[in-house]
Design a protein that fits this description.
The chain is α/β, with parallel strands linked by helices. It is built from 12 helices and 8 strands. Helix 1 runs antiparallel to helix 2, helix 3 runs antiparallel to helix 5 and helix 10 packs parallel to helix 11. The longest helix is centred in the first third of the chain and has 17 residues. Bound molecules: guanosine-5'-diphosphate. One of its GO terms (biological process) is SRP-dependent cotranslational protein targeting to membrane.
Length: 297
């Protein structure tokens, strides 16, 4: 991820960083190259415009042109704006209540986005942190989803709640929450069903599950490989159901990075974790500053 954009950004940074004097023309050229790099990376057009105009405005001031180290000043502007684009603050933690009560995490996303895998990765992570998670198989559409979650749960030693033959995910969710409370499970992670494409039935179903559970955290799992489509779908989920955070799956794939660079700005919710592989331990907190440094090379 980011290989191509990082190549282009580091060229811009190298060209300007060492200069003891830079002109308005230098800045215009650099900003133009940044614009092309962002567009090539499939970043949302509005996001690109805002980034480019803001950078230009800030860099054209006396602060940069008259600075002792103008190149460095320019690079700092680009870096700060990149961090802001990715999510301002450092890693944003899960919104969970204390261990004396049951918190609920609702997982949403299109089929194949990595929802089920991410649910089990989160469970494993929380268990390691000393929590007592329970997984819930409320994806009642994809035939193999329940079994898949059971296999994943077994492998990490986390119980998986399901009801054989039940077609109503709200019933499954409510029964799971009641059991979690009784068994003093402090985090319930609910895997909901996805579809290949968005449709009203899916949204209604997830909305009903959400209303029944009143989750503390509603995570949208976005597949990095789907680029702008991931951003559009996230917006839909945000408007129709409401989300509190994003997990960007398949961050290890060879994509241009458009989803990562557009999501926060377009949807307005933080990216909390990234999926970096198929294995249970391949889930990492999302650090905007580290990613920005990586892109700037
Ligand atoms: P769901 O339909 O949304 O529940 O998707 P799954 O959890 O079944 O994942 C779909 C496929 O993506 C599976 O083959 C997963 O192993 C794979 N997958 C999920 N997350 C990641 C990730 O972060 N990196 C990679 N490389 N593969 C992933």
């Amino acid at each position: 991820m980011f290989d191509s954009i990082s190549d282009k950004f580091s060229t811009v940074v190298r060209t300007l960083a060492g200069k003891s004097k830079i002109t308005e023309k230098n800045i215009q050229d650099a900003v133009e190259e940044i614009k092309v790099a962002l567009l090539d990376a499939d970043v949302n057009l509005r996001v690109v415009r805002r980034f480019v105009n803001g950078t230009m405005e800030e860099a054209m001031g006396e602060k940069v042109l008259k600075a002792v180290d103008p190149g460095q000043q320019f690079v700092k502007i680009v870096y700060d704006r990149m961090v802001a684009l990715l999510g301002d603050e450092e890693h944003q933690k899960l919104l969970l209540k204390g261990p004396d009560t049951t918190s609920v995490i609702l997982m949403m996303g299109l089929q194949g986005s990595g929802k089920t895998t991410t649910a089990s990765k989160l469970a494993a992570r929380l268990k390691k942190e000393g929590r007592r998670p329970m997984l819930v198989a409320a994806d009642l559409v994809r035939p193999a989803a329940i079994l898949q979650l059971k296999v994943l749960g077994d492998a990490i030693g986390v119980p998986v709640f399901s009801i054989d033959g039940e077609k109503n995910p709200v019933k499954v969710a409510k029964a799971a929450l009641a059991l979690a409370k009784k068994d003093q499970r402090d985090v319930l992670i609910v895997d909901t069903s996805g579809r290949m494409h968005l449709d009203e039935t899916l949204m209604d179903e997830i909305k009903r599950v959400s209303e029944a559970l009143k989750p503390d955290e509603t995570l949208f799992v976005a597949d990095s490989m789907t680029g702008q489509n991931a951003v559009t779908i996230a917006q839909e989920f945000e408007q129709k159901v409401g989300i509190t955070g994003v997990v960007l799956s398949k961050f290890d794939s060879d994509t241009r990075g458009g989803a990562a660079l557009s999501l926060r700005s377009v949807v307005g919710k933080p990216i909390k974790f990234i999926g970096t592989g198929e294995k249970t331990e391949d889930l990492e907190p999302f650090h905007p500053q580290r990613i920005a440094s990586r892109i700037l090379g």
